[in-house]
Every structure is written in C-alpha cells, then in structure tokens.
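Weekly structure sync - notes
Attendees: PM, LS, DV (DV joined late)
Agenda: review two folding runs queued last week.

Item 1: First target. Sequence and structure tokens pasted below for the record.
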Amino acid sequence: MLTTRNNRLDPSLIPDEQLAELAKVFAKPDQVSLIDAEGNRTHLPESLFAHFARIVRLMSERKAILLVPEDEAFTTQAAANYLGVSRQHLVGLLDAKEIPHHKVGTHRRVTFKDLLAYERMRDASRREALDKLAAAAEAAGHYDSDYAGEK
C-alpha cells in the first residue's frame, strides 16, 4: 500500500543552493554521470536522465514528487481520489468489473496500472463521444469548423 512517507520527495529537505546546482546540471542533456565510491563513472541513460531532469526541475519549483510503482495497491478511497470520482462510484465500477481489483481480507485494492488503464480507456471514450457530437453538430450546420477555436 502507498506510504507517502517513503514515496514522497520533498524539496524542502534539500537546500535551495543544491537544488539550483542540480537544475543547472540537468539542464544540459548528456552531461550527467554517476561516480561511485571507487571512482567508477557511468552515464545516465537518456530515458532516466529525462526523468531525473523533470524531477529536479519540479523540485526546484518547490513541488513535491510522489513516486508510485505500477503495481502499487490503492484503497478504494485513494483510487477514487486519483480518478476524481466518489468512492461509491468507484465501487460500482469495481462491481461492474470495469476496473480489476483484488481483496485483502474484506477490503478491495486496485493497482495503479489498472487505474491508469481505466483512465486511458475512459478518456478515449470521452474523446470519441465528443468527436461524434462535433461531427453531428457540423453536419446539422450548427458548427463551422473553419472558425473553431477563433475568437
């Protein structure tokens, strides 16, 4: 289960000067290497560098970072909070088998990766419905796509 104490990177625990120095270092792509206690040097892979650079940038903006593994188990309340729905609505989604879950004793748990999958599916479904609505409005002459977005 998610424990914010262990998964939270709090920028207030790092001196401002050190965050500023890290931000400078991570602002230059391919300029970061790690050196261990014996002096062995290794370069960060590009994908890892990009994540570290984003973390450092956000922390230098005084934003805390929360690391959540994909297999992290959320309570129904935490899952509902993440999706921006009520807990009861989430329980309905679980009962309808729209989101996979498992039980720990009598309590339901939802993995973060299943929440992400549901969120992607929900967002795609919403986009599709809006596209159909816009197409229907345009076909009925109630929407002029030449002026969409212009003020």
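Item 2: Second target, run right after the first with the same settings.
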Amino acid sequence: MIVSLFSLPFVAWLLFVACDGSDPKGPAATPTPAGATATATPDATATPAGGTPAPIPGVSLEKVVGGLSRPTFVTHAGDGSGRLFVLEKQGRIRIIEDGRVLPDPFLDITNVVKSSGNEQGLLGLAFHPEYEHTGRFFVYYTAQDNDNTVAEYAVTSDASRADLRSGKELLAVADKYSNHNGGMLAFGPDGYLYIAMGDGGSSGDPDDNGQNLLTFLGKIHRLDVDAGDPYGIPESNPFIVRSSARGEIWAWGLRNPWRFSFDRETGDLWIADVGQNKYEEVNFQPAGSKGGENYGWAVMEARHCFRPASGCDTTGMTPPIFEYSHGEGCSITGGYVYRGGEFPALDGVYLFTDYCSGNLWATRQVGAGAFETERIGTLPGSISSFGEDEDGELYAVQDDEGAVYRVVAR
C-alpha cells in the first residue's frame, strides 16, 4: 500500500481534464516551505538479476519557489542564463532567477487570455531553438472568443521583458467547448514546432474530431516557423499531399494530449493522453518516424474499444505502451525522460504522474518496441506539469499550491 507523506485534508477541483464533461475532484497537498523536500513514497522494486536494469531510485520534490497563481508549465529559454520560465494560467509568464521569482512578468497577456474555464488559460510555451540570437518564442492559450491560439512574440533589449507589440498569431482554431484544449508546444530535434490540440471537449468527442483529418482538433501538428507567413508546412509531413487531410497534422486520434516531450538524447516522442471515463495512456513515437500515427481516439480509449464499445476496428492504429485505470487516478500528467547529469540512476527513465491520485510511474525502454513501467511512489496531488531546465534536470509545478519543485533522486 502506498501512503503519501503529505496530509490531504481537503479536495481541490481538477485542472485540465474533465473525464466525462464535468470537473472530477482530486486531492490537494499541504503547502511545503521553500527549500523543504516532499518525498515520493516508494513502492517495492524488483531485485536486479543478471542483465536486468538496476532498480529505479525513489524520487523527491524539492521546493524552489511558491506564491505563483495556478502555474501550468515550467521550461527554459536555452540562452545560457540558467533561468526558468513559469506560466500562470491567467496569462502571465514569470521568471525564476537565482532562486526567486522576479517581480515583473516576462509577458502579461491576461487581456487576451480566457481563463474562466478550468482547462482554459495560458497553457504552453516554447522558445525558438536559436532564441539566444533570434529572441523569438511561442505561446499557446485560450483566446477570449474560445479559440485555441498559438502566437509568436519576441524579447526586448531587456532580457527579462518581452515585447507585447511583437505578438503575431499563427493559429486560431475555433472550439465550441471549454475543455480538452491540449496546449503543449515544443520544438523537436528537427527544428520544427510541434503543437498538441485536444479533441475540442464536451464528452466522448461528439464531433468525432479525433478521427477527422480535416480538423486541427485531436491532433499533434508540426510547423516550420522559419518559413512562410505565418508559418510553413514541412514537405515531409505525412499528409501534405493528401487533399482530404490538413497538411499540418503529424499525429492523430488523440483525446487531450496535455503534455508530450522529446527525449533530448534519442529524439523519441512521448505523449501522455488524458482518458475519458476509464483509462489514461502513454503513447510512444520512435525517433525517425515519418509521422501519421493514429493513436485511436475515439474508436479506442487506451487499448479498449470506446466507440463502438466492443468489436471496434483498430486496423492501422497504434496502441499505447502503457495504460492505467481510473482506479489509480483520473488525469495523467506527462513528463520527460531524465537526461540530466546529477542523478545517473534516473538516466533514460520517463517519469509521469496523475493529477488526482499523485501516483508516480517510471517507464524505460528495454529493447526495440519493449518497455517496462513500474509505480515508484506517490507525489502530492495537483501536479499539473513537468518541465526541464537547460541542463536536463526536471521540475514539477503544483497547481493549487502555486509552487515549482525540483525533481530529486534520493
């Protein structure tokens, strides 16, 4: 039995994924003082035998800062500054420098961001691979008219302040509902910008967006932001020559890919897709894929038929590498493959958690197409996102407490 070291005295509304169109509830954690350590309670791990990987170590969360307002993501700019950039749901980007949050936001677009819905707000941030020279970065947010919006901005001569006047809209995708917005942005090893959009919301994908190649919703897209106006479509995208599909699409059949990440060493793509009523899932796309994978939603929920409830045709669909039932949580928070230098025992391990239960899992690849996943402990609830710093060390943001934590192997 796993027992969290955190006291859970009350219930917080779940951010970011209503499984059945309503907001499920998840546990909220007791605030931890800055500098303190929140320990993931470890499960038993198998004793290594000859040729098997060493056990995965326990993981703790070491508090970096608090006092933020519903943080949704943390990342770095790749500019050698060592700073962290944290998104606040209402529409601000805050900078953590030398262990403190700077008083003035890096960017404040609260006037254009709609954050009234529990899954709406400022959701994604990606800095251009050449940010140190170009000053360009990209954000994903819910606009006041409900559109899922991707926009580009630039930094000013002050490295701590973005230029509001530089804003340029790349995408504005109409969305009838407030939930399942996706929101992840990341540049791949190929230099292209990848964008995750949810199926548009409500419950059960009523418009069948996941399986419709003519809509942006329920997909991961791949754009060339260094060509075209406002962007170009890479010629190697899988559907670029198909008249019955959008050329921007890279992968499809997704419900709410709230967080995905690239392994900075191998280039593999890991996608955590939030489930409907029964299952959460982790999908995997190996480096070198030509794209076009169909991950099954809403024909499938994880490895199980959803529509129809039985006898579904899964021809050509790519099943997840791991799933867990709603007996173990209700909203997956995808993470990263650890490639930092401080904790060698975590190298190559993909960490992810559940927003509601706090269960923490670790997956590693043990062969071509073969993976091992084990539950390694329990984190505080309401971890809304993970992130990396420039050196590959991992961080987590906690929604209800408004805190940023550093992931530490014990």
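Discussion on item 2: The chain is about 0% helix and 35% strand.
Action: LS to circulate a short write-up before next sync.
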